[in-house]
Amino acid sequence: MAKKIPSSSSSPDPDRYLKKRASRWHYVRRVPAHVAGFDPRGTIQVSLKTSSHEVARIKRDAFEKADDLYWSGLADGHQAESVVSAYNAARTRALALGFEYLSSANLAASRSLDEILRRVEKAKGSGGREAPALLGAHERPALTVREATEYYFNTMAADEARGMSEYQFASWKKVKRYAAESFISVVDNKPLLEITRADAQRYYEFWLDRVKGSKGGKRMSSNTANRSFGNMRKLFKTYVNWLALDIRNPFDGLSFRNRKSDRRVVPPFEAEWIKTKFLVPGAFGRLNDDARLIFLALIETGCRPSEICNLRPENIRLNHPVPHLAIRFQPDRLIKTESSIREIPLLGVSLEAMKRAPKGFPRYSDKETNLSATLMKGLRSAKLLPSEEHSVYSIRHSFEKRMQEAGLDYDLRCRLMGHANDRPQYGDGGSLEWRRDQLKKIVLPFDPAILA
Hints:
With 452 residues, the protein is mainly alpha-helical. The protein has helices spanning 53-96, 104-110, 113-125, 131-134, 145-156, 166-186, 197-212, 222-242, 271-278, 289-299, 305-309, 348-355, 368-381, 394-405, 410-417, 432-439; strands at 18-21, 24-30, 43-47, 316-317, 324-327, 342-345.
């Protein structure tokens, strides 16, 4: 088993990892020796941004737990890699020598004495080098759910994660790790291949209670439940395929109906609301300049916030005869869908906003979660949300609604929004000049003072 990090509950010191500098508390902790080769941080030093001793302890607990889980994952993943690699190497070598790989116990129980003697003679002939493969020195890896999850990240799904940005990779791991940890909390951190149908059904019932909002709890969407359940199903399937085993997936056939009534509907901002609330001086209160410009850039482009905050300078084409944004594939960042690749003319307030950020927004590059939180906080504090259902994405939905009401062609709307379109695709979707002229029909007036 991988070495585990001691939990905070085992420590008698209530002020562990806390140091006060000037009037502020800091979280200071050395990386444990057994994972130092995998975590280059050496000594972790994080300002907790508080002078309150009580608040510092609460924040310390969160950092401590996160680091404990991270280091446990590193240790699990490292051990898993060596165990599975040794097993796969032995299995591959046995097949190359003309034998099925069997563990020593299975070999003794299921094969004739004659076959065992032939294997022994073959191993002797190799000077003992082939003995591990021929005589089953390595048992089938019994990785626990947590170990298998880390091995999935490091090896089995390495190609799936190729091309992700640092933020995307962390988010991708977060949802899969959440599925594994929730399974562990409900069932156990048992060997992955020992999960039974009864275990999977128990996990299903856990999510069913949350979807139904049983026991007075908050209802969760079936989509959230299916994502976690699907991640466990995929983990099991990928691991079984990796080891070339023939084992039924205990999670197969268990899912939740994704009813339309369960989906959260994000309403658009009405055009009048945008004109009178957003496009007037002083509308955004204390919102920082970058966040304010990004929001204004969304109004006449309909882009996703992540598309604006991750723009590269070469894709902000202000000197073109038709100023526009080019949403493109990037080698170090996956894009949402192939249909997201597009060119969007810049007009009105969005053009003026991008003129003030010709090199993009490094402050929020690969930090779309931070951007969203900042924008939502700013919109709420300035009372710019008509209802609790409205969000930053409402501005994108508004762009689509305004195009529809102005009679813009369906195909053009899909192209500008980056949506897939089932119609046969002909041509290039129209020139930038034509797209610009179409979008002029929906451009909203604004007071230039809002950009001062």
